[in-house]
Design brief:
Layout: E1 6-10, H1 15-26, E2 30-35, H2 38-52, E3 56-60, H3 66-80, E4 85-88, H4 103-131, E5 134-139, H5 143-146, H6 152-172, E6 177-184, H7 190-193, H8 197-205, H9 215-225, E7 237-240
Parallel strand pairs: 1-2, 1-4, 2-3, 4-5, 5-6, 6-7
Length: 248
């Protein structure tokens, strides 16, 4: 299903992005590890290539820069022969209450989490439109569905990703390109693991399944949306949240 395909994953040197890259590599899909941390990206690419026996390259990119995203798409085609799957995963947080939030923190989060998705989809669409095939998966968040105290910047950006996903799905459908989004809930990562235990416990209380998700939970959902099993699915916003945002 994924053999001889190429997947680009932004922000994939570590965390959820790396888990997504490994999920594709597990099914023999070649991967492009892209991150602003170039040394770590190369290390991750080397480790994935060795472990899964696929082609894995590293391309440094700042998703807020259009030219970086264009180069990322070009390198995927040049080095691996095609660009079949693009996952917009890169993201940052700069949390604070709305009344105290610094303008530069608002701008940074929106630029990376929303404009970065715009840049990524625009760059990916060119070779995909030419090939008349493509799978684009954007990583949003339940924060974009329900809001999140202290995250006016992040929640706004992720809500924008949802709207942009639906718009792109309509625009690209005639060229056999599907565009979907995944909304993670509380996922156990280095960032959430650093939270105080009482905060983690309180977050888990909000989840009907009473447990946090893992990066692999997100990765499997992304892989499904990129597979042939999801060929008739586009414009979907898939929550992977243990039920946290049921009804949204």
């Amino acid at each position: 299903m994924f053999e001889n395909r190429t997947a680009v994953i932004t922000g994939s040197a570590r965390g959820i992005g790396r888990a997504i890259a490994e999920a594709f590599a597990e099914k023999k899909c070649n991967v492009v590890i892209s991150d602003i941390q170039d040394v770590l990206a190369q290390k991750t690419a080397d480790e994935i290539a060795k472990q899964y026996g696929v082609k894995a390259i590293a391309v440094a990119a700042n998703v807020t820069k259009k030219e970086d995203c264009v180069k990322l798409a070009d390198e995927a085609v040049k080095q691996l022969g095609s660009l079949d799957i693009w996952v917009n995963n890169a993201g940052v947080i700069r949390d604070d209450l709305l009344m105290r939030m610094k303008e530069e923190d608002f701008d940074l989060v929106v630029n990376v989490n929303l404009k970065g998705v715009f840049n990524g989809m625009q760059a990916a669409s060119r070779p995909m439109l030419k090939a008349r095939y493509g799978k684009i998966i954007n990583i949003s968040s339940v924060a974009g569905l329900v809001g999140s105290p202290g995250q006016a910047n992040y929640a706004s950006a992720k809500a924008g990703v949802i709207a942009m996903t639906k718009t792109a799905a309509r625009e690209f459908a005639s060229r056999n390109i599907t565009v979907n989004a995944v909304c993670p809930g509380y996922i156990q990562t280095d960032m959430t693991g650093a939270l105080k235990e009482e905060i983690q416990a309180e977050l888990k209380k909000q989840i009907p399944l009473a447990k946090e998700g893992t990066p692999q939970d997100i990765a499997r959902a992304v892989r499904f949306l990129a597979s042939e099993d999801a060929d008739f699915i586009t414009g979907v916003i898939l929550r992977v949240d243990g039920g946290m945002a049921i009804g949204m």
